[in-house]
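Exercise 7b. C-alpha cells:
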C-alpha cells in the first residue's frame, strides 16, 4: 500500500472513531417529546393544599402582570410547553371549551423562551391566564410533574382534587366538573 492511501485510510478511520465516541457521549436535547409517563407518583397529593405561586403573566389583560392561584375558585392548572405536541392539543381543547367548564383555567408555560411562549399564546388564541415558568421552577419543584402536559384540578378550598399526566380529552374535562 502506498503512503497516501494509508494516510487517507487512517484519517477516515480516525474521523469515524471520533464520531462514534461523540455520538455515545453527547446526548442531544429532545425537542419532540410528546408525553412522558413514569409512574403514578407525581404532582401534589390528592387532598393536599395546592402550592401557590406568582409568575409573570405572558398574556397580560386588564393590567394584570402576574398569575397566581385565585382564592375561592375551582381551577384547572395546566402545564405545557411550545415544543410539546400533546400540550398543543390540550391548549386547543381547553380554549374551545373554557366557557363551558365549571372551573377557571390557568396555564403555566414551562421551560420555554419568552418569545416561544408568546408566539404559542398568539397562535392558539389562548384566552385564559398563562404564567411563565422558564426555569421549570414549579414543574420540578412544588408541582413535581414528571412530564408534560400535566394538569391539576384544584377546588375552591385550594385542595388538590386530581392530577393528570398526558393529553386531556373532552370526557376527562367533563368528569372533572363532576369531581368538584
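Sequence design result:
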Amino acid at each position: 500500500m502506498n503512503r497516501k492511501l494509508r494516510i487517507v485510510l487512517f484519517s477516515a478511520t480516525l474521523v469515524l472513531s471520533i464520531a462514534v465516541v461523540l455520538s455515545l457521549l453527547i446526548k442531544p436535547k429532545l425537542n419532540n417529546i410528546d408525553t412522558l409517563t413514569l409512574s403514578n407518583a407525581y404532582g401534589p397529593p390528592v387532598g393536599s393544599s395546592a402550592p401557590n405561586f406568582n409568575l409573570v403573566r405572558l398574556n397580560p389583560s386588564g393590567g394584570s402582570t402576574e398569575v397566581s392561584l385565585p382564592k375561592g375558585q375551582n381551577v384547572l392548572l395546566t402545564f405545557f410547553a411550545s415544543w410539546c405536541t400533546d400540550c398543543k392539543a390540550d391548549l386547543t381543547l381547553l380554549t374551545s371549551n373554557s366557557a363551558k367548564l365549571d372551573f377557571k383555567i390557568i396555564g403555566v408555560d414551562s421551560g420555554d423562551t419568552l418569545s416561544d411562549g408568546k408566539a404559542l399564546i398568539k397562535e392558539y388564541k389562548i384566552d385564559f391566564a398563562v404564567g411563565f415558568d422558564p426555569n421549570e421552577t414549579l414543574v420540578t419543584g412544588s408541582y413535581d410533574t414528571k412530564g408534560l402536559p400535566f394538569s391539576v384540578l384544584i377546588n375552591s378550598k385550594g385542595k388538590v382534587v386530581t392530577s393528570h399526566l398526558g393529553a386531556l380529552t373532552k370526557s376527562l374535562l367533563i368528569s372533572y366538573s363532576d369531581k368538584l
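Instructor comment: Residues 27-39 have pLDDT under 50 and may be disordered. The beta strands are 55-57, 66-67, 75-80, 104-110, 129-133, 150-154, 160-165.
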